[in-house]
Amino acid sequence: MIVSSEPNEGKSFVAMNLWRQMALAGEKSLLIDADMRKSVMIDQYGIKREDGKEVWGLSHYLSDNKKLVDCILSTDLENGDLLPNANNTVNPSMLLDSAKFASLLDEMAKEYRYVFLDVPPLGLVSDGERVGHLCDGAILVVRSGVTGRGIVRDSVSQLQRAGCPLLGIVLNRAGGGSGKYYHKYYGKYYSRYYSDEYYSKS
Predict the structure, then answer these.
(1) What is the band of 197 on the pLDDT scale with cuts at 50, 70, 90?
(2) N or C: less crowded end of the chain, CB within 10 Å?
């Protein structure tokens, strides 16, 4: 689980890059956008299906009975798949607490070497704690020079209450630089179940 204490600390950027690096290293990896309240991943990274059809994601799978095979997207990274969130929900707590979500994580853990979850900030809502107790551990993203030590300690305590080990802390935006980043390397996204490569392997 990749999480932050507050908004705008760069957790989604860190999650996307960890997922990308593991995929480039040859490790089969899945990134799940579990921020079902205020996700901007689809717009920010230009995620779309190659066939032009509507993008479905995590909330569709958990609430609308869409098939998982139609919600997971392949990318131009051979070992990198995405499960985005294409429909923000006012109160996703019931979805995150559901047996279906827990079962999804168990199923994906069998299929992928790494499963990364991008979740809402711990200081805003309790979604991170709900997800945390289902994860092997959490990486806490801290914005350098902005996030106070007390806030970080509170976040660590929340993770401990959830029974989610803290694997490490990423100090983001440390040092110089403008803090801007670009997303040119992602290309097109499409459902792997509509790709020629998928059918050739079936």
Answers:
(1) very low
(2) C
